[in-house]
Amino acid sequence: MNPNLTRVTGFVGFALLVVLVFLLPEWISTFRAQQFAYVGIYLIALLGLNILTGYTGQISLGHGAFMAIGGYTTALLMAGNEQFGQEGLLGIGGGMKDVWTIPIAGLVAGLFGLAFGLPALRLSGLYLALATFAIAVALPSVVKRFEEFSGGGSGVNLFGLPELTAGIIPVDIAGRELVFNDWLYYLCWSIALVLFGIAWLILRGRTGRAFRAVRDSETAAVSSGVSLAHYKTLAFGISAAYAGVAGSLFAIATTFVNPDTFPIALSIFLLVGVVVGGLGGLSGLVVGAIFIQFLPLWAQGEGVASRLPGFIVDRTKEPGAPAIIYGIVLILLMFFLPNGVGGLFRRAGQTLTRWRYSRSG
């Protein structure tokens, strides 16, 4: 495919996405705005996971844990742990505005990712996937163990705090009064679009080429002068930082965090979202994020279930129908789109290029 055409198409697509994102709240309710805010949150997490899995080939089943680290960082910086009878996190109480906690949450999660990436250098494939999954499994118990800092199973409540922007009083932005759900939507999507652009810049440069070399062949990458230790660890750090930012926004959106806020299943859903969006690409991840947010809701309602034959699932008699619907839709997507939505976009671009050259010839 012509690289110039690819670049132009990418810019046009991104510009259309930006326009759609900022116009969408005009057409939907504040409740729907909150739901689409979660799409932006998941998009951030998928961008980071795709850098790790799609571009360097390192499978992670523990990114929900990195989101939890970011979420708890934000919660404790906002509320402190004074509510647990302590003096506050590391002797410092809360009181930090929610927006300022977001980059700190990304930094903290990124440092944890770098710390995990070093010992993970000895692992690959399923062994690495199991090691990361172990983090997701162990983290809830660790959080409950240090109850004096995390609140244990009771968690940390952010609702009603003055540090929560627009939580009680609407905020005025550019002459427009935004309630919490609308503010949350613009916050999440503004950060998501910025991080999308940063990911694109990283992956189109030397670092991105090194990531792809590691993914395609570690032996060839080493022979070309690529440091496996450096780039694999870097990918873990960047990916975890993205997950930390997503977790921070998730904590702000839910106004509450406890171990159940970031369940083990979240890590699985994130990997599913990356596969649906398309490994090794960015364009389809928006669809992957929509898949994570809305398919479970559609499966529980009339949207999908009403269109399935009764012999497959009877919603009135099967309590597990939503899970069955989710599995069926996922299987069908993988059958018809084995390379995800991003692969579909690439094939469409190749078809457009061939058509263009056939017309010019």
Average of per-residue pLDDT values = 82
Number of helices: 15
Strand content range: under 5%
Q: What can be said about the biggest beta sheet?
A: 2 strands, antiparallel
**Strands side by side in the biggest sheet:** 1-4
- Gyration radius over CA: 21 Å
Count of distinct strands: 4
Structural class: mainly alpha
Q: What is the terminal-to-terminal distance?
A: 16 Å
Q: Return residue spans where pLDDT drops below 50 for at least 5 consecutive residues.
A: none
Q: How much helical structure, as a percent, in the residues?
A: 55-70%
Taken in chain order, the helices and strands follow as HHHHHHEEEHHHHEHHHHH
Task: Name the overall outline.
Answer: globular
List keywords for this structure.
361 residues, mainly alpha, two-stranded antiparallel ribbon, two-stranded antiparallel sheet, globular
Task: Explain what you see.
The chain is an all-alpha fold and 361 residues long. The chain has 15 helices and four strands. The strands form two sheets. A two-stranded antiparallel sheet has the order 1-4. Strands 2-3 form a two-stranded antiparallel ribbon. β2 and β3 (176-178) form a beta hairpin. α2 packs across α11 and α8 crosses α10 (228-254). It is globular.
Write the layout of secondary structure elements.
Layout: H1 3-23, H2 30-53, H3 63-79, H4 98-117, H5 125-145, H6 147-150, E1 156-157, E2 171-173, E3 176-178, H7 180-204, H8 206-216, H9 218-223, H10 228-254, E4 256-257, H11 264-277, H12 285-300, H13 302-305, H14 321-336, H15 340-360
Antiparallel strand pairs: 1-4, 2-3
